[in-house]
Fold each of these.
Amino acid sequence: MTQLPDVLLPVVSTAARGPARDVVAGRQFFLWREAWLETHQIPRHLPETVSLLDTLRMAIFRGELTPGQRLVETELASRYATSRGAVREALVLLSNEGLVSRERNRGAWVRPVTLEEAIEITEARAVLEGLCAAKAAAAATRADHRELRATGKKMTEAVRKGDVVTYNATSQHVHMRVREIAQQQTVAGMLERLRYKSVRYQFHVALLPGRMGQGLKEHMTIIEAVTSGDPEIAERTMREHLLSVIGALHQLAEMGVVPYLAPVAARS
């Protein structure tokens, strides 16, 4: 189980928002996140079953490789006990996924994601996954219903224990199974390209005070909608769930705890 110490859980007043409150919330969130990362470091020597690509990807997702950080091939090769060639190839693939930026004579660095881009990704997902939910509601079998409900039970238990990792895993599984049940290959391909960018902020959203409980409620509603067999309700429920994430993204940006979700500068 992955549970954070209670003494580090963010305790944020429900009073009106303001700069002072956001600073306090941001500091509490940062302490909580750092406590989690201290006990979940990416291993410096890769297990044979874990690829360098997956390890670098997870290091970016979890914030070990921070937005804007230069990715020096020799340093990464030493850190992960591999060759510069393997690192170079992995960085090219991560660049294709939108996680890394590369320029000739400048090297590579972790690509930041602005608040504006994160919102655009979430809005696109709301439309695409809403379609998948509608199709899944019409196509799901009884076996599919049982699997979705079983995942809902696992998520419920994860939230009860404060298990952030299992909560995120079960959340992603619900979305994945809905896409698979829908059998919308074109949409699935589009969502896969968005997935790598969105996972970076999904983890931090789950750490917000009360967000896991809210997310659980929304996922259980999605499961109920899909298993009800009503495409219209399923589509609306999925869209509402994803659009609710936008408020959480604004909260992260206001708290200043995630640099790559910094508010977009005002336009003249």
Amino acid sequence: MKNILVPTDFSEQAENALEVAAQIAREHNCEIYLLHMLELPLELINPADNDTSSNDLPEAIFFMKLAHQKFNAIMKKEFLKDIKVHETVEFHEAFDGIMEISKKHGCDLIVMGSSGSKGAKELFIGSNTEKVVRHSDIPVLVIKKKFDIFMVNKVLYATNLATETASSFLEAKRFANNFKASMEIVFVNTAKKFKTSEEIEKRREVFYDQVGATLDDIPFTIRNQLNMEDGIVKYAEDAEFDVICIGTHGRKGISRFINGSLSEDLVNHAKIPVVAFKIGESGV
């Protein structure tokens, strides 16, 4: 990892994400691009192109100066000491700006904040974070609380063992390797989509062969639960995993991955950070 993008609205949740990003940046010698989007009316951004008075221009300048003041306050935080942080203010809709800046600066990871139950609903019901998680070509780490020390020693990858998720698993494995963390795969067996032990084992063998893994390297666990979200969260918390990794499908998002409300419920109920990886169109 070289570059980390952290979108901010200067909220407590955004600062929690920035503090985690700072710890990752310090450990991996990364640079941080701290991005604030000013979603101003078009006439304020390009007054010459609109039938509005030039008196509107000072309002745009005011918001820009306000953003810089908030950036200056953040830069004084002790957790950012000796880390190279690029202040970036853009006049875009948030989602478009985040995608554009991540590509422009070759970012390897996006770190975003969310909060509790309310945050999860906002996160996965039409919000900018949901769009980023759904469409980003690079991993998105969602932080839901403050971490004085962010450690990644145990990583859980949740999958339905579909061959098309192999590419996202390999991305998750690279993520775990960056932290020298151990990794485990969990398959949640539900009554609605029940699979026999023989069926699961056959799918596991195909999946492990596809990604070049062995049970010695990547342990495999089956959990029986009423729904996949609860199965993933309960196992992750009981086994004290540091991060949950999941794959996402472009337009249809995480919900297609497990055909339900995994995206909302998983982030809603899990206190553990979640990392989303885009599922490739053609598998590995």
Amino acid sequence: MSSKPSPRRLPRPTPPASSAPEAEPLLALGAPAAAAPSPDVRARLLARVRAERATAAGTTLPGWRFDSASDQSGWRPSGMPGLRFKTLSVDQARDVALVLIELAPGARFPDHRHDRGGDEGILLSGDVITGGRLMRAGDYYHAADGTDHVDTFSPGGCTALISLTVRAWQTWRSPSPS
């Protein structure tokens, strides 16, 4: 068995430290020119920057109001275990109230008849059984005036956005904040 000598590897030469900064401007000259963003992209970007600044500063445009389900202020106990409400708006002229309802895991909503107008809502998070159906986040329902709302409970807890008549809301709301 013959043994060949292994080839000798020479170390790579390292460029002088001063050559890299000198090469950057030359490389930049060879790069293609960046295209300006389209007017639509520019407008959306500027709107986003303005919105983030306004949000950080807590400013609101005249005639606007904002709220959040995650903001704990404004939630009111219902007097029923695991059930609370947050009134977002009440429009007496249109007889419409917009309310957030939260059910804790395993909580039940009391059976009731829609005798002061129907209601409708969309499940924002969690799950709830109502109207004989299992609803999950994103699902919508409408219960017409004169219908019965029975067997409503949430296996894992939920938050829903509900629109109902002011007359109906006045029968459910609680007078004291949580």
